Amino acid sequence: MPEFRQNKATKEWVILAPERGKRPSDFINTEDKKESTQTDKKKCPFCPGNEDQTDKPTLVIPSKGDWQVRVVPNKYAALQPNLATTRTWVGSFLAAKGFGIAEVIIEHPDHNLTLALMELDEVGNVLRAYRERQKEISKNDKINLVTIFRNHGKRAGTSLGHPHSQIIATPIVPPHVRYPMEKAVLHYDKLGTCVFCDMIDEEIRQEERIITNSDNFVALCPFAARSPFETRIYSKKHMPSFVAIDDEEIMELAWVLREVLGKLYYGLNNPNYNYIIRSAPIGDEDTRYLHWYMVIIPKITIPAGFEIGSGIYINTIAPEESARFLRDTKTK
Amino acid sequence: MPEFRQNKATKEWVILAPERGKRPSDFINTEDKKESTQTDKKKCPFCPGNEDQTDKPTLVIPSKGDWQVRVVPNKYAALQPNLATTRTWVGSFLAAKGFGIAEVIIEHPDHNLTLALMELDEVGNVLRAYRERQKEISKNDKINLVTIFRNHGKRAGTSLGHPHSQIIATPIVPPHVRYPMEKAVLHYDKLGTCVFCDMIDEEIRQEERIITNSDNFVALCPFAARSPFETRIYSKKHMPSFVAIDDEEIMELAWVLREVLGKLYYGLNNPNYNYIIRSAPIGDEDTRYLHWYMVIIPKITIPAGFEIGSGIYINTIAPEESARFLRDTKTK
After folding, report:
1. Which terminus in chain B has less CB density within 10 A, N or C?
2. Does domain A3-25+36-173 fall into CATH 3.40.50.1820?
3. B4, B172 in Cβ contact below 8 A?
4. Could you tell me which residues come within 8 angstroms of residue B34 by beta carbon, excluding any fewer than 6 positions away?
5. Consecutive H or E run containing B92
6. Which of A124, A121, A119, A125 is nearest to A63 (CA)?
7. How far apart are CA A310 and CA B179, in angstroms?
8. Where are the CATH 3.30.428.10 domain residues in chain B?
């Protein structure tokens, strides 16, 4: 059974998920093998024809006929939905059962297609699936935070090649999310504005880190980017949670997202990346001081001792330069 | 010139160090090449005979005769010592010149030796070099934090195979360090004790995550370990900064550290790892609520979208099991 544990000093939580894992001896170092993430299509549990290898879907788009998007419970979930959330003491340490919801968004029937190359309405359907599932999962009283993310490529932590994203919903709002909230409250109490709205306005004013733009969204390499080509997509209007996005905005976001992923794909030759949609915790969807956004992090550099120790990232490419490169890259 | 930049929302700092880096097109994805970190000895700037390839050392041990440890300014430093620390505004964003001190501790003349296999007094000399340089650098009024770290192996971010550690001293205490301090103050104000001392006592009482022990130090896999085999070495007595360690304790720590690194080396076949010594900020060396420690993180798993997005790490091996494995591993 998975378990949450809290670091007594820092108050950070971890998830112990031993059933996903292996024995210590499985971690003995071997020479880097060239492992492919491209599972054999016949064996791929996400490919059409193999639907019986996954649990009953929580969402299928379109709802009739051949599916494009299937959302299914994660078979190798780090958290389980049928557990209590009571915190318990282990001596003077805090723990809790590993309650949570973990789902996989299978984005497309085509095993070898990636989001950057899909049709616009297909990308829109993936984003709609995110929103619908986030909305539904948020109704669970025990859930406090929904994290949506995509790991692309082996170096970004994917084990399956078939295009997919993930949702993990936790009963816990971790310090990593809470601390920036506290800063945002301080900013709001001081200036009466959403710090994210202010940051976005300033980025638009300074212009040089903007990659692309639509009526409601902006994609940019942020002023304090932690790594080369780190990109963020923000809603220009104040919107604390991704659940509030409407159908028209979904299609606009689909265009901006595909544009950014396309520029990475063509400009950097399909790099490994992680992307994450960060929303306000459940219950804070209408707050005046938070703002959802999408962060796309090409997996190009390795955070080493200094980054892990200090949390200060060393970025060897100025975001102005990253943005210029991506701006100038043509998508086909 | 390197530059600090602050994320307006989260108050996290990054370092832009473009002179270390490359042009955007240098980051175009290529198939994983099997690159060795084993530089040719003849060309290795850290090997005996090539001392003229590094700047004048800031410390040599022993001070006469053949050197064992040489500390030199980092030639590819992300920060530079001759800059002002004044914060400046870029529109409404905060930045500062990249002032800081970056040094390399060359640990041994032997290009192919690693810390796990050195003689005890050699390990002791490396630790002494850390302490001496931290002490000296701390005298600089503009420095607020000294981070000592070691990246072992390519996957841990090393570019040079010759055994070495690094020191980076910054004028900034980042949120990553400040937040746990705030928690420690809350704990101190509530209970009147150092939260780290309490945590260490509890770990010793629970016993099952202890790897090894000496009079003054304990090595353990913490209750809320973020990844398999994550190990911490703590001083059993309250000590906020590594600079306070005395010569006798240095030799005891050398034994504990070599024991832990040896267990990783033999038990996991010389895995890639990062280790970090975290000390209280300069000026807080005598505080009652902080505690220096060493954290050793074998580079076995990849933090992916969920970890980056939530700060919640999924650990597939319980620290009790990691500790048992390391406890049972014989060092030769």
Report:
1. C
2. no
3. yes
4. A32
5. none
6. A125
7. 12
8. 3-173, 176-328
Tokens of A85: 């959330």
- Please give the Cα distance from A310 to B172 (Å, whole number): 10
B3-173 CATH: 3.30.428.10
| CA distances in angstroms from B81 to A29, B123, B133, B307, listed in the order given | 39, 28, 15, 34
- Does the interface ipTM go beyond 0.90? yes
Environment class of residue B57 by beta-carbon count within 10 Å: exposed (0-12), middle (13-18) or buried (19+)?
middle
Choosing from B164, B176, B238, B291, the catalytic residue is B164
CATH class of segment(s) B176-328? alpha beta
Neighboring chain A residues of B323 at a CB cutoff of 8 Å: none
Flag if B12 and A93 touch (Cβ within 8 Å): no
For residue B263, give the 3-state DSSP assignment.
helix
Inter-chain residue contact A305 with B15, CB threshold 8 Å: no
Contact, A291 vs A235, CB < 8 A? yes
Q: What pLDDT, in 10s, does the model give residues B164-191? A: 999 999 999 999 999 999 999 999 999 9
- Cite the residue boundaries of each domain of chain A with CATH code 3.30.428.10: 3-25+36-173, 176-328
Cβ–Cβ below 8 Å for B147 and A315: no
- Among residues 5-34 of chain A, which lie with CB inside 8 Å of chain B? 5-18, 20-25, 27-30, 32, 34
- Is 80 exceeded by the pLDDT of residue A21? no
Burial (0-12, 13-18, 19+ Cβ within 10 Å), A43: exposed
Residue range B238-285, pLDDT digits in tens:
999 999 999 999 999 999 999 999 999 999 999 999 999 999 999 999
Q: How far is CA A287 from CA A188, B109, B274, in A?
A: 11, 59, 40
Answer yes or no: A291 catalytic.
no
Measured CA to CA, the distance from residue B176 to residue B170 in angstroms comes to: 13
Query: Which site among A3, A13, A25, A27 would you substitute to test the B interface, given the most B Cβ atoms closer than 10 Å to its Cβ?
Result: A27
